[in-house]
TrEMBL record:
GO terms for molecular function: ATP binding; UDP-N-acetylmuramoyl-tripeptide-D-alanyl-D-alanine ligase activity; UDP-N-acetylmuramoylalanyl-D-glutamyl-2,6-diaminopimelate-D-alanyl-D-alanine ligase activity. This is UDP-N-acetylmuramoyl-tripeptide--D-alanyl-D-alanine ligase. Residues 272-390 form the Mur ligase C-terminal domain. The keyword Magnesium does not apply. The lineage of its organism: Bacteria, Pseudomonadati, Pseudomonadota, Alphaproteobacteria, Rhodobacterales. It comes from Pseudooceanicola lipolyticus.
């Protein structure tokens, strides 16, 4: 603390400093300097927190692992994560985020990773950047903190990959690419999303690879491939990584799936919830809509004979002047063709609502609170509903309302720390 807070005893165990931020950063640097841990830093426009959890899941089976909690990825979270790192840590996973230019490089230099992973680069935080090239340059600045001889693991599918690669090469890093594109060092050859699992066949350099993720979604499989590449760059055991990855599942708010039992005695009367309410940008919204489009519905179980795919979507924030067009543009996504009904929340999502064909329009509401109380009248047995929006839209309130329709879960909800 920089001063004695009111109401705190005079003999309370407080460390008095001139500036709290400066002191926290010093603690973080000191903790980083005292450890011999292999450090992995991860950033990206989409999926960095889920990928961080994948990394922590894999590495924790191979040694004492310390990782960022929740979404501790900013100028407070990164030094706090480092300061909390035990001296005997063997692996550390540090998530690094940003909202404005110039934020990632100082945090990366503080973390001093041996491996830096960039999950993807998409249209997020456009309010602070002129274009996606500017976002790519900021994400790429994570390589400025790499230890000598470090490795940059980069998404080879993104259009701005040349920007990422050039930055890594300029920093003297070894470049490892991953994705579905030809030329990627770690290339996914086939991805099959099943009801509750995604199975992928890939090639790691020249070695065939088969791995599974306990969640449906192509984006999960691609992020997992990047996570595997990053762990292997640290020297982790490959076979054990693949085994451990299969035990990871997304947390609430981050794509978790759960059945909502609508009748305590008739278990066939249930709907399926995809809880992706924690955050949203155009890239993550497209990925989540693909998951919804592929989700199986059940027929002849409720008042509505045909099961429906229903999206409840909230505003995507921090997109700048292009925001109205980016919201309206969601209507043209291929996945929307398989979505039956879209409920929209927030003034920005009004642009999507107006762009939708009449047959797909559900209702538009100003806030999550305005729609949450009516959700029980919008859903029926056999439906699949996906909820997603920026954190400030509080779509967790809608998720809670859907859960309250239930009478106990046939499958327990996946619950974990908040992320990204």
């Amino acid at each position: 603390v920089s001063h004695l807070p009111e109401g705190v005893a005079a003999d309370a165990p407080l460390l008095l400093v001139e500036d709290v931020q400066t002191a926290l950063e010093a603690l973080g640097r000191a903790a980083r300097a005292r450890t011999r841990a292999q450090v992995l830093a991860v950033t990206g426009s989409v999926g960095k927190t889920s990928t961080k959890e994948m990394l922590a899941r894999m590495l924790s089976d191979q040694g004492r692992t310390h990782a960022s909690v929740a979404s501790y990825n900013n100028h407070w979270g990164v030094p706090l994560t480092l300061a909390r790192m035990p001296a005997d840590t063997e692996y550390a996973v540090i998530e690094i985020g940003m909202n404005h230019p110039g934020e990632i490089a100082p945090l990366a230099r503080m973390a001093r990773p041996h491996v830096a992973l960039i999950t993807t680069v998409g249209q997020a935080h456009l309010e602070a950047f002129a274009n996606i090239e500017g976002i790519a340059a900021e994400k790429a600045s994570i390589v400025e903190g790499l230890e000598p001889g470090g490795t940059a693991v980069l998404n080879g599918d993104v259009e701005v990959f040349p920007i990422l690669r050039a930055a890594a090469e300029a920093a003297g890093a070894r470049v490892v690419s991953f994705g579905e594109s030809a030329g990627c060092h770690h290339r996914a050859l086939r991805i099959e999303a099943l009801e509750d699992t995604t199975v992928a066949e890939a090639r790691a350099w020249r070695t065939p690879l088969l791995y599974k993720v306990a969640a449906p979604g192509r984006h999960f499989a691609v992020n997992a491939l990047g996570a595997l590449a990053a762990c292997w760059a640290l020297g982790a055991d490959r076979a054990l990584c693949v085994h451990s990855l299969g035990r990871w599942a997304p947390y609430s708010g981050r794509g978790a799936h759960e059945d909502i039992l609508l009748d305590p005695t008739e278990t066939e009367l249930r709907l399926h919830l995809i809880d992706d309410a924690y955050n949203a940008n155009p890239a993550s919204m497209a990925a989540s809509l693909e998951v919804l489009a592929a989700a199986p519905v059940r027929h002849d179980t409720g008042r509505v004979r045909v099961g429906r795919r229903i999206a409840v979507l909230g505003d995507m924030k921090e997109l700048g002047p292009k925001s109205p067009a980016l919201h309206a543009g969601l209507a043209a996504l291929p996945a929307m063709g398989k979505v039956d009904t879209v409920h929209c929340i927030g003034p920005l999502m009004r642009h999507l609502f107006d762009a939708l064909p009449d047959a797909k329009r559900g209702v538009w509401a100003e806030s999550a609170a305005a729609l949450a109380g009516d959700m029980r009248h919008k859903l029926d047995s056999g439906d699949v509903v996906m909820v997603k929006g920026s954190l400030s839209m509080n779509l967790a309130r809608v998720v809670d309302a859907i859960r309250k329709m239930g009478h106990g879960q046939p499958d327990p909800a996946v619950v974990g720390p908040e992320d990204e």
